[in-house]
User: What shape does this take?
Amino acid sequence: MAKRAVNFGAGPSALPDSVLQEATQGLLDFQGTGIGIAEISHRSKEFTAFVANLESLIRTQLDVPPTHQILFTQGGGTGQFSAVVLNMLARHRLLHPNLTDDERVMDYIITGSWSKKAAAEARRLGGGKVNVAAQSTHSIPSHESFKFSPDPALIYYCENETVDGVQFSHDPSSPASFPFHLLPQDTLLPIVADYSSSFMSRKIPRLADHAVIFAGAQKNIGPAGLTIVIVRQDCLVDVDAAAKLGAVPVPISMSFQTLADSDSLYNTPSTLPIYIAGLVLERSRELGGVQYFEELNRKKADKVYSVLKEGEQKGVFRGKVKEGHGSWMNITFDVLGDGAEAKFLTGAEAKGMKALKGHRSVGGIRASLYNAITEEQTDGLVTYMREFIAANTQ
Ligand SMILES: Cc1ncc(COP(=O)(O)O)c(C=O)c1O
Assistant: This one.
């Protein structure tokens, strides 16, 4: 086999070698059944036990309280852009049947491309009005600028903007934190968070206060095709009863209540991605859980931001995100000068470092440092960046 590249891609992205090797065995024989994981029935006792264990690996590592269910589904983050709107509008309809669509408000916080897309989907589906509660580019909006509605159907934010490299800080004293303190305290808040590109990379602040947290698996924990949804019990509602009151009907495969009632096995789940995610999270548990990755990811990000700063001082690089608002997972910057970006990418490729090109919509460089990227691989990138600075400074 050719030497594996260091894959700094934003998703699908790197997975641990040891897990991939183990998975090749599982493809031939899943847990001694003599049947491969891509072939075995999702209703077999071995597979259902595997799903239950995956649930518990997430629950224990993230401290998910019993007030919340963990669901597995398909459709990716984009599927959840629709599902959260439909389920949360149904919940709101049951709570407030007589409001008009204009009075039924959904608060969106826009910090980059993915939250913008999610808000566009909410507008497209109808059944409620989108209020942009705060918005900014290249930074988290200032806390003073947030304008939450009095009783919204949902309050939506994207914790880590994968394309733009903007992430909410998990330090509550930081101006880049999510302003939970501006929300009412003694009520079940309809907070919905897209954690697609930071799930399992560090603890989730105020997890218990969220109505829904969702994530596609294909960044930190597995292949594309599995979506994880953590839903508070009061958001598992009878969507058909809501539809009778005028809510937008919810496709059965998107109904949180249906998924919960069937232990995420209402229809055939994505068996292979579930399997690989289970192996990844078992390995994560053995290493010390999310806390282990939190420390590692902090160190990795600090190292890259630090060399980025050196490059800024020398006029070689320019970070795209305000200091303190940058992502630990996706670090975005420009390489200054004619042809310099192409030179940077070619030099990186020559050293076996791939997929550093920024998203096509924004250009520049994006280094994604998901859980499977080791500290050693990060050091390799840092060394290369430092060499590039030296070679391009007069
Ligand atoms: C933060 C975030 N949300 C949503 C999505 C969309 O996910 P999917 O492609 O699984 O629909 C992505 C994809 O990269 C993402 O990074």
Q: What stands out?
A: The pocket of pyridoxal-5'-phosphate is lined by residues 11, 76-78, 114, 158, 162, 194, 196-197, 216 (CB under 6 Å). The first strand starts at residue 6 and ends at 7. Residues 289-391 form a domain with the Aspartate Aminotransferase, domain 1 fold (CATH 3.90.1150.10).
